[in-house]
Write a structure and sequence with these properties.
Layout lengths: L17 E14 L2 E8 L2 E8 L4 H8 L6 E10 L12 E12 L16 H6 L1 H4 L3 H23 L3 E2 L17 E3 L7 E3 L5 H9 L4 E9 L11 E10 L3 H20 L6 E5 H8 L13 E2 L1 H4 L5 H4 L3 E7 L7 H12 L9 E5 L5 E3 L7 H10 L7 E7 L1 H18 L10 E5 L4 E4 L4 E4 L14 H4 L8 E6 L2 E8 L4 H10 L4 H14 L7 E7 H9 L29 H6 L6
Parallel strand pairs: 3-5, 6-9, 11-17
Antiparallel strand pairs: 1-2, 1-4, 2-3, 4-5, 7-8, 9-10, 10-22, 12-13, 13-16, 14-15, 14-16, 17-20, 18-19, 20-21, 21-22
Helix pairs in contact: 4-6, 4-16, 7-12, 14-15
Bound molecules: aspartic acid.
The site of aspartic acid has 8 residues, from strand 21 and strand 22.
């Protein structure tokens, strides 16, 4: 080794030792007769001291080193007179006797500090410098720990990690596939997996019983903030299980990760159905760190001559505790907020439950005090609270209410980052209607089993069939999802039919799976977690990019290696592709 110690490990007990350290010149200070250098590596920072009086030449040499120069120093560990309690190595410094510049560096385009002066794009272009920053390094360490502990837990539960292929065949799983042209087979293409879904099911047919894989997946989706075209899943599958077996097993994984990575114990999981989640929270991934449930007011608000309510399919609201004091200006701002296209509500009715027990609302013309009191009771409101009510088409109103609920939760600081509300949302609809294509799509994927009691509906009223599917949601973030699978051929055929596949199309796309199902496929089910997102959640960030060593930007570009990029005409010809 070029060094005897790293830059994070020397303590007061090491005083007197002769040591050799290597690292980067983080910063230097010249204080008259003394020069100090902070030497940095992955493990920390150690202060180096150079004395002009005792060795002017060495001190000059130290002064001539620039930021990010790579240095090797020899010297003696000495107690610092001016200790720095903020640094683990802050009790000591190295009185340097020899300094070697291992490499010079250009001045970096941004400062290698916790709060850097580099913007996003610049940091991504020079990601290798960004990674030298402690924050980024800590994020990668967290990710490493999450992966390691995931493996430990699942190994302990008899799961085995199996690699599935990356060059596969296009499978319709919602998003578009990335495709790879084949040189050897003119005009033919591989696809990159959106997930190893069919392979993990085939591993169950293969009798592996419990599979997992921490695996890259690829989806060529339209740009959305914080989406990465390639991302990582913890992908899992189990045989001979019911839904609750799967949920219990992965609650165990979550509990393990919470404990060893976050130091949080006693994590509890709630289970609610999709239908309840939509009804009470206006979202299929509710943030249940706070209540503020949506209350249905149809029975109490309609038929009082207020057209907006009378014509609406749904009148519903939430109760913002302690907000009756909101000013006209604050209320107007809230109305503006719900009218933004992202929320899409037409308007907002408010009812102030004043401290003196009276009511003041924006619909006083239509509703008397007594009526407003009956609304307040429906919300369990108390004087000082503010009711916020919307009306319109049911689904859209619930969703808009859900957005407003989150916003009010944020404004009232009810979304505490140190609290974790975990739940499973179950019984998703099996199919969703695509108005444009005039056909049903699988909400999860075509291998998801319907709930047994809903199978008879598949032929009659497919839109009402519920799936044996579930999502894990933590603090309003969808961390993962999965389902119990269809494992017999006739039901799978029915499902393809409901999805509008002709038997020929189904055979062409999924013949391999259908064949496999004829050879004794076990009942099975599984789940996949968004690993990047889970890391971000544990790291306390909303940006998954911060937890990926070399991420793409929001336009799907890698600005460091400059990809995607054109390829040369010769390469195109070889791949049997025409130049554009
Ligand atoms: N393959 C699914 C997905 O990527 C997860 C699963 O059903 O296991 O969402």
């Amino acid at each position: 080794m070029l060094r005897t110690h790293n830059c994070g490990e020397l303590r007061i007990d090491d005083t007197g030792k002769q040591v050799t350290l290597c690292g980067w010149m983080h910063r230097s200070r010249d204080l008259g007769g003394m020069t100090f250098i902070d030497l940095r590596d992955r493990y920390g920072i150690t202060q180096l001291a150079f004395n002009m009086e005792t060795d002017a030449q060495l001190c000059q040499q130290a002064r001539s080193t620039g930021r990010e120069y790579v240095l090797k120093v020899m010297g003696q560990v000495t107690e610092r007179s001016n200790k720095n309690p903020k640094m683990p190595t802050g009790d000591v410094e190295i009185i340097v006797s020899e300094l070697q510049v291992l490499n010079e560096s250009q001045t970096p385009p941004f400062t290698i500090e916790e709060e850097t002066d580099g913007g996003d794009e610049l940091r991504m272009k020079y990601r290798y410098l960004d990674i030298r920053r402690e924050v980024v390094r800590r994020n990668l360490e967290l990710r490493h720990k999450m992966a390691l502990e995931t493996r430990k837990y699942l190994h302990g539960q008899d799961f085995i990690e199996v690699e599935t292929p990356v060059l596969i065949k296009s499978t319709p799983e919602g998003a578009r596939d990335f495709v790879v042209p084949s040189r050897m087979h003119a005009g033919q293409f591989y696809a990159l997996p959106q997930s190893p879904q069919t392979f993990k099911q085939l591993l169950m047919v293969g009798g592996l019983d419990r599979y997992f894989q921490i695996v890259k997946c690829f989806r060529d989706e339209d740009l959305r903030a914080d989406r990465q075209p390639e991302f990582t899943q913890i992908d899992c599958e189990m045989s001979f299980v019911t839904r609750d077996d799967v949920l219990d097993t992965f609650e165990g994984l979550a509990r393990h990760l919470f404990k060893v990575v976050k130091g949080v114990e006693n994590i509890r999981f709630d289970r609610i159905s999709y239908q309840e989640a939509m009804k009470y929270y206006g979202s299929d991934k509710p943030d249940t760190r706070f209540g503020m449930r949506i209350v249905d007011l149809n029975g109490l608000a309609k038929d009082h001559g207020f057209q907006v309510f009378d014509q609406a399919e749904l009148v519903a609201g939430i109760c913002a505790e302690g907000c009756a004091g909101y000013s006209r200006k604050q209320l107007d701002a809230l109305i503006e907020w719900v009218r933004r296209p992202q929320v899409g509500a037409k308007g907002l009715v408010y009812v102030k439950y004043n401290e003196d027990g009276s009511f003041k609302s924006s619909v006083d013309k239509f509703f008397g005090q007594e009526r407003l009191k009956s609304w307040a009771d429906a919300f369990d409101a108390v004087p000082g609270d503010l009711l916020l009510i919307m009306a319109g088409e049911a689904d859209a109103t619930r969703k808009a209410m859900g957005e407003l609920r989150l916003e009010m939760g944020k404004r009232l600081e009810l979304r505490d980052p140190n609290t974790y509300a975990c739940l499973w949302v179950t019984d998703f609809p099996l199919l969703e209607w695509d108005g444009e294509a005039q056909r049903y799509h699988a909400m999860h994927h075509p291998f998801t089993s319907p709930l047994k009691e809903d199978i008879p509906l598949l032929g009659k009223d497919p839109g009402r069939v519920r799936a044996n599917a579930y999502d894990m949601v933590i603090n309003g973030v969808e961390i993962g999802g999965g389902s119990i699978r269809i494992f017999d051929r006739p039901l799978q055929e029915m499902m393809f039919e409901a999805l509008g596949f002709t038997p020929e199309e189904a055979k062409k796309q999924f013949g391999f799976l259908m064949s496999a199902f004829q050879y004794g496929a076990p009942p099975h089910g599984g789940v996949a977690f968004g690993f990047d997102r889970w890391c971000a959640l544990f790291g306390g960030s909303e940006t998954i990019r911060d937890y990926i060593a070399f991420p793409k930007n929001n336009a799907g570009r890698d600005v460091m290696i400059d990809s995607p990029s054109p390829i040369d005409p010769g390469q195109l010809r070889e791949l049997h592709l025409k130049t554009i």
